[in-house]
Amino acid sequence: MIIKWKDEYSCYDPVIDAQHKKLMDMINQMNEIIELGDEYDHFDEIVSIFEELKKYAIYHFSHEEKMFEETGYDSFNIKIQQLEHKSFVHKVAGINLYELDENQIGTAKEVLDFLSRWLDKHILGTDKRFGEFLREKANQP
Ligand SMILES: [Fe+2]
Known about the structure:
Blueprint: H1 14-36, H2 43-71, H3 75-93, H4 97-102, H5 104-139
Helix pairs in contact: 1-2, 1-5, 2-3, 2-5, 3-5
The structure holds fe (ii) ion.
């Protein structure tokens, strides 16, 4: 599964939306390598994209988590967000590099599939709930 931006993904916050788009761009960049279907060694390239993706995801999640605190989001939803964010980072950090080297396309595909599904579910559920909270807060007198 490859993830592409659609309006439904909007969380009503331009910064969060832009960051989500960037995560999707990085996922799509990885997908381009997978789809090349050539015989070349892509190990270094794949590792560096996953490294960038991990770094950017950590930056994005900490941005969101800072916003939860600043806007007084409730602790139950903050906990859910934190746990879900951790599972994304763990997935990328937990890639077995030996396995990746042996089976570059297969392993990259499996991780990418996980991340795409995760992002789709997380944005439409967990992040959108926060977006709605922000919107309601902004509309309060
Ligand atoms: Fe989130």
